[in-house]
Amino acid sequence: MLKDYLRLHFIVFLWGFTAILGKLISLPPVELVFYRTLIASVGLAMLLSVRQQPWRLPVGQALRLLGIGVLVAAHWITFFLAARLSSVSVCLAGMATLALWTSLLEPLLLRKKFQAYEILLGLVAMAGLYLVSQAEFDQLTGLAVAVLSAGLSALFSVLNVKQIQHHPPLRLTLYEMAGACLSIILFLIVRPAFGGELPMLDPKPLDWLWLLVLAGVCTVYAFSASVELMKRLSAFAVNLTINLEPIYGIALAVVIFGQQEKMSPGFYAGTLLILVSVLVHPLLDQWVQRRRKPAAEAVSVGER
Predict the structure, then answer these.
(1) Are 156 and 68 in contact (CB under 8 A)?
(2) Crossing angle, helix 59-85 and helix 169-190, to 10 degrees?
(3) Which of 72, 130, 145, 187 lies at a C-alpha separation of 20 to 30 Å from 66?
(4) d(Cα 15, Cα 185) in Å, to the nearest integer?
């Protein structure tokens, strides 16, 4: 069990490394995500083939997953763009609002009830976001793009709640990576016609190394390994550990980029508020579920 927990933390550590890779790779964000999704699609297809798992789907279901892949592409493009427009630390502080976005979108899209504690934690996260924006006002654009990216991530995650009930995770991810890749190809083809730049599809030799790490290690390996661990670890333990991703990422950024990642005290105070709201959420959620379970059992007994 300890080995599984250590492996889970290593996976979250890898995910925290993605924003740093986005800084290290010289390609523009759109082209970067094109290569990431292309390599990930090929890697997932090979993984499914090795495991002899079926990947074909009816046209309607395939189109639905490919459509969600467009949201994945938009999320990753805005994520890497935010890391370019600001520092890695500010980007990850904005991405930490993912839990806030999810608490807003789940009731709207899945017809769940709004929870009072989620609203309270959302207000705490917003207060933290305000502190970060005031402390790093010169990086406000990057922060705003990161918050938008977190919203897109929450949107496709909520949409996947229903899809995961009908499709194995690896097959679902293959179609979404393919949808992301195809949508970017289409965008790169039509962009010059609207006055945009021609695609820059010529990675430097070192870029290929970072792209393989990003797509192969941080995407295909990390995802498939996390799915395997979910069979043995509780969803609560997995989600709580995943919420540590911004902490790992910010710490790595300070170590790798040094002075340019050193922020003002206001930034760290705001980020701490956001992270507190993120880490407390699963604890409160589990506590509420435990309180509801005896009540539900009592109603069940009464009905008998």
Answers:
(1) yes
(2) 70
(3) 145
(4) 25
- The phi, psi pair for 196, rounded to 5°, reads -80, 175
Give 73: exposed, middle or buried? Use CB within 10 Å, 0-12, 13-18, 19+.
buried
- Say if CB 51 and CB 224 are below 8 A apart: no
pLDDT tens per residue, range 81-108: 999 999 999 999 999 888 888 888 888 8
Question: For the chain, what is the radius of gyration of the CA atoms?
Answer: 20
Q: In whole angstroms, what is the distance from residue 43 CA to residue 206 CA?
A: 20
Match 């070192």 to its residue by tokens. 206
Residue 284: CB atoms within 10 A of its CB come to 15
Tens digits of residue pLDDT in 220-279: 898 888 877 877 876 667 767 787 888 888 888 988 888 888 888 999 999 999 988 888
From the number of C-beta atoms within 10 Å of its C-beta (0-12, 13-18, 19+), residue 26 rates as middle
Which residues make Cβ contacts (< 8 Å) with residue 239, sequence separation at least 6? 282
pTM over 0.85: yes
Query: How would you class 39 by CB atoms within 10 Å of its CB: exposed for 0-12, middle for 13-18, buried for 19 or more?
Result: buried
Q: Is the dihedral of CA 113, 127, 83, 12 positive or negative?
A: negative
258 Cβ contact partners less than 8 Å away, ≥ 6 residues apart: none
Left if phi > 0, otherwise alpha if psi is -120 to 50, otherwise beta: which for 100?
A: alpha
